[in-house]
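re: ur question from yesterday

yeah so i grabbed the chain u mentioned. its 224 aa long if i counted rite. heres the sequnce exactly as i have it in my notes:
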Amino acid sequence: MPESILIGYHRRSGSTLLMNLMNAFDSLKVYGEVPSIPIMLRYVLGNVRIKKNICVKPMDIFYIAYPENFKRFYKTFDKFVWISRMPMDTYLSDMETGYMYLSYLSRKEREGIRVKFFDRWENVYSHYFANEDKWHLVRYEDLTNDTAETFNALSDYLGLDFSPEKLDLEALNLNWDGGDTKILETGDIHTKSRFRYKKEMHEGQIDLFMNRLGEKIARLGYDI
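ran it thru and got these structure tokens back, copy pasting raw so excuse formatting
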């Protein structure tokens, strides 16, 4: 019987990379942010019939718009894959792309950090932490450092076989349908953005993140 898979994430966490790599599962049709809009509407209404395995990556504002206990919605999906990234790196990428500046009217800062980021991050991640047993966790850092091992674990969870040779961005014939446009310019999977905060944030900023999110960062499996 065909199954439906939901990707959960906070923006700037590697979800576009994961979505494109999931095309390595030959029996899976993957829908990015834009094509997923009508599909998500059908799921919200509980009116979905599928004839093949599908994977849906909605815009991450979906996880803000709907509460983490929206159980009727969760019953409509079969498998759940959450991609996480160290929140300090997510923040730096958010600032770099300008999303942070567009998202909030409040410019309140502590240690030079826009503190509204914490509220958004916690709102989105509430879906993961409230339903932790449902989600298969993929860390961006693991995905970029050892893509094959990450996909072996993902394959076991999904019960689908993947083509290892397709874990190569050049082999995927990438198409942009929402998410990070930089992936179209990327020739390979690199680790340059892993833990960049260690070089780009000062001690006071890192302490601010740890004081606010430290317990949740640890629950995601990061060393702190």
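noticed a couple things. The mean pLDDT is 87. also Residues 12 and 90 are 5 Å apart (CA to CA).
anyway ttyl
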